[in-house]
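Hypothesis: this fold can be encoded by more than one sequence.
Test: take the structure tokens below, design a sequence, compare later.
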């Protein structure tokens, strides 16, 4: 398990927020900590999707 310092997390969150703004994504709402966390979680999921690492949806299950 890799442990980051708060400074590293802040840098990652700032980078992900800049990518989200450049992509035109809306900013999440909440406390500053929640917004940073949500922005990074969203970027991680987008990266997984772009890399083809997301689970396939079962077409027999309605949305």
């Amino acid at each position: 398990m890799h442990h980051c310092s708060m400074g590293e997390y802040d840098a990652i969150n700032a980078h992900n927020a800049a990518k989200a703004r450049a992509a035109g994504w809306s900013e999440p709402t909440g406390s500053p900590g929640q917004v940073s966390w949500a922005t990074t979680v969203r970027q991680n999921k987008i990266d997984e999707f772009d890399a083809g690492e997301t689970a396939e949806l079962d077409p027999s299950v309605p949305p």
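Residues 56 and 62 are 14 Å apart (CA to CA). Helices lie at 6-23, 32-50.
Hypothesis status: open.
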